[in-house]
Known about the structure:
Blueprint: H1 3-33, H2 35-38, E1 42-43, E2 46-47, H3 48-78
Antiparallel strand pairs: 1-2
Amino acid sequence: MKPEAEAYWKANLRLICGSLLIWFVVSFGFGILLVEPLNKFYLGGYPLGFWFSQQGSIYTFILLIFFYTWRMNHLDRKYHVDEV
């Protein structure tokens, strides 16, 4: 594998792993493990732990999709594999 292709793949894997880690922390960590401490705070009239388990993980996932798309477009241009 070419060094440039290997660097591109490593950057892509770092981006995927980072995105999955953020999603895991928000959905599993905030929505399940830390629900009781977070429920002491309120967001829009709902306990924050409940909000993260019902809405927050979905919003985070959607934001991660847009972030991943934006970042991959940047990586594609950097490594000259973008679509014309």
